[in-house]
Amino acid sequence: MKVLVPVKRVIDYNVKVRVKADNTGVDLANVKMSMNPFDEIAVEEAIRLKEAGKAEEIVAVSIGVKQAQETLRTALAMGADRAILIEAADDVGTDIEPLAVAKLLKAVIDEEQPGLVLCGKQAIDNDMNATGQMLAALLGWSQATFASKLEIEDGSAKVTREVDGGLQVIKVKMPAIVSVDLRLNEPRYASLPNIMKAKKKPLDTKTPADYGVDVSPRLAVLKVEEPPARKAGVKVGSVAELVEKLKNEAGVI
Amino acid sequence: MHFGLTEEQEMIVSTVRSFVENEIYPHENEVERTGEVPLAVAEAIKAKTLELGFYACNFPEEVGGAGLSHLEFALVERELGRGSMALTHFFGRPQNILMACKGEQRERYLLPAVRGERMDALAMTEPDAGSDVRGMKTFARRDGGDWVINGTKHFISGADHADFVIVFVATGEDQTPKAPKKRITCFLVDRGTPGFTIRHGYNSVSHRGYKNMILEFDDCRLPDAQVLGEVDGGFDVMNEWLYATRITVATMSVGRARRVFDHALSYSAERKQFGQQIGKFQGISFQLADMITEIDAADWLTLASAWRLDQGLPANREIASAKLYASEMLARITDAAIQIHGGMGLMDDLPLARFWRDARVERIWDGTSEIQRHIISREMLRPLGA
């Protein structure tokens, strides 16, 4: 089975994000960029499937600026076999919208015919949480989102999903889209031999035009603002006061 | 001229950095408090380093290492320098002088060291022979076909975990017009050899948990097979293989300085006094500007000296400059970081006092600042006949 893993280049999760002075977006100048942490978990899961003999080949795909090549090299250094970069923007500030990404991924999947797509549940930059679901709809494949456990069986996948009320176990028919959550695994470090080998692994560069997909934005960003600063908490003197405040000030009970 | 790293080098840096942040930082407080590295932690760090193929990455591929260039190895050590030395010791980097092993020494010392099966330590310093290496009193005399060693070494880092020690010992004396000059031979000595004892040294203000040990040789008998390099050729192996290792202190000082600087920078942006962030006061902001300038300067000086080694260019003076400047820079940076933090900088709740204490030894070991200045000036003046 071939596993396809889409990976996105995002602001590193350790970076304190700053909004640009003109409120048009987030300041990306001189900011450390890394692979979206959920995508790293997806890459790790694909490698584990390969190590368990359940997958033969891992293909990593990234859609964005040409610097996303570094993100793909990281996936290759972790253990992916080859990579496809779709250069869809010149400006690092351009974000390709989920629907366009899903359409491009569908085109790649039509060519590659993977048995499984493992993707992060969302990217930590815009937190859209949409691409996996849209891709499943476009392909007409089964989908299992927010996976915290994945077991591949004959022609199906048993997925434990992290839902609001707890854990839900579902069985989906393959081929399928599985979007992964934080607790699925702990991604490995790239080993030194794999870092050295990563450069020799194939990395194809394409453009949206190669797949006939229009990536022009459908959404307009009007304004980006810092979230309001959290107000300091208050100390309550007694349980009675706490209950009173929860009832009358917070209105939650 | 090209100052960028390759994609592989960038990945080496980010991998080692996250390793240090995730596998080293969480254990630092315990090591600092107890002065010990728990065995299980040491074993885990070693096992992970081996698994990732970073163990002995300073060794060439033909003996099982990763074959990193001097520059790449300097990048690895720079990132390791961010973490506690007591812990990063287990991110094994055996002494590359082991490349001088010949014949069956390779099977007994070199290859097991690269595989992480046997750990080494290097012993040169003695109570009466610090900067004056040739003044060493530990002496090996011929007895039958063997060598019999007597004497004491001290300040031997890592010997508590060593399975064998690489020891420099006097094996004779030549008369010269100025004064008698000792001949030195390098020996490989296994832990447990009769007449050889490893015991605890002193409590140091720097690098708690990274212990300095005392080695005692009391009629310790060794066959010729334990000689590393040639008899009386100790200075030759030293010069061939220990030349590059002085870069280690420079790289680690740069890595640690960046970690310290990150504390100082974020504190300057958060801490408020007199109604504003202290970073808005010129007294602090100019301090930060000077700090980062010095760190960058030390970083480039160090990487440039490693690059010279890779190019096969003479690098003795450059390495000495890097060691001198980076270790002295670290002292200034750690001191300034504490000043920026005020009283809180001295408390155990923050790691700054530890960095400040740790920094002190960097100007002393692996050749004091004075010895480095001697090397630098000698390299320039000798050709002029001075």
From TrEMBL, chain A:
Keyword annotations from UniProtKB, A to Z: Electron transport, Transport
Xref: Gene3D superfamilies: HUPs
PROSITE patterns, sorted: ETF_BETA
Pfam families tied to this protein: ETF (PF01012)
Any one GO biological process: carboxylic acid catabolic process
Any one GO molecular-function label of the UniProt entry: electron transfer activity
Cofactor(s) of this protein: AMP
SMART domains hit by this protein: ETF
Domain of life assignment: Bacteria
Keyword set includes Repeat: no
Boundaries of every Electron transfer flavoprotein alpha/beta-subunit N-terminal domain copy: 23-215
Family designation: Belongs to the ETF beta-subunit/FixA family.
Function: The electron transfer flavoprotein serves as a specific electron acceptor for other dehydrogenases. It transfers the electrons to the main respiratory chain via ETF-ubiquinone oxidoreductase (ETF dehydrogenase).
Self-association and partners: Heterodimer of an alpha and a beta subunit.
Record protein name field: Electron transfer flavoprotein subunit beta
Organism of derivation: Thermohalobaculum xanthum
Automatic annotation (TrEMBL), chain B:
Gene Ontology terms for molecular function: acyl-CoA dehydrogenase activity; flavin adenine dinucleotide binding
PANTHER family xref list: ACYL-COA DEHYDROGENASE
Cofactors required: FAD
Similarity remark: Belongs to the acyl-CoA dehydrogenase family.
Residues in Acyl-CoA dehydrogenase/oxidase C-terminal domain copies: 233-381
Classification of source organism: Bacteria, Pseudomonadati, Pseudomonadota, Alphaproteobacteria, Rhodobacterales
Claim: Transferase is one of the keywords in the record: no
PROSITE patterns recorded: ACYL_COA_DH_1, ACYL_COA_DH_2
Keyword list, A-Z: FAD, Flavoprotein, Oxidoreductase
Protein's name according to its UniProt entry: Acyl-CoA dehydrogenase family protein
Residue ranges of every copy of the Acyl-CoA oxidase/dehydrogenase middle domain listed in the record: 121-220
Residue ranges of domain Acyl-CoA dehydrogenase/oxidase N-terminal in the record: 6-117
